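Reading a protein record of the kind used here takes only a little practice. An example makes this concrete, so a full record is given next.
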Amino acid sequence: MFLGFIRKTHLGMAAAVVSLAFSTAAHADRLADIKARGSLICATLTSSEPLGYPDPQTRQVVGFDVDMCGAVAKQLGVKLEHKGVSVEARIPELTLGRVDLVVAALGYTKERAQQIDFTSAHYQTPIKLIAHSGAGYNKIEDLADKRISANKGSTPELYARRMFPKATILTFQDTPAAFLALAQNKVQGLALSQPSGIRFVNESDGKYKFLEGALAWEPTAMGVKKGEPALLAAVNDALDKLEKSGETDVLWTKWFGPQTKFNIPREKKLTPISSFQ
């Protein structure tokens, strides 16, 4: 009887191990989960025009990043399930498995690449500094020891700290809050990507300006949780097809083209992320 009990115990443990192995394998394939679910959970920012921001009429979050999410979802043959995230929550939401893909002004850095996987970079933009036009600052170096605001956890924060170690960097939850610090003279400069900063400059009637130079040129890509090679390959394949068909350029022109207040050309096309490693 005792031997029978031992055999049953061993068989039960073996079955549990096999079951756990199958369960782990199933959860390890995010692409299969997306296909089975029929939707891609894609995260974007919600207060960064024209990447992701609320349409004043519909109150729905719209923008270039939202459209890119939709385009990738279509290539994968599933529907888009949009989710809004803050700058600092982008990577945690991905690593915790709460979203499938992050398309939220996600600049590539080697530090971030230790936490998540990056797709090819679908565009590149300069990281700039904005200052009051009448403050007497002309070049980014003029703020090397001044107070600079930035989004918390953003690459503008990272590059500002890296380039100007003597500066005081104040961080905020979103771009409007970081800009308000500049408007209220709590800082002398605001660090952010050129697309995010153009509206502040263009709509200020000359009150604000971009300083000469750039903190960095930032390759921007999409983020995938580590350990999901099938999903990473599928998104890269989708981006390649969108590039070759011209759809990425169409979407860029829609949100950044000459008919918009941004008027930023997409100078750098789809580039393998290995080019920046």
Remarks:
- The longest strand covers residues 123-132.
- The domain at 29-124+219-272 is CATH 3.40.190.10 (D-Maltodextrin-Binding Protein; domain 2).
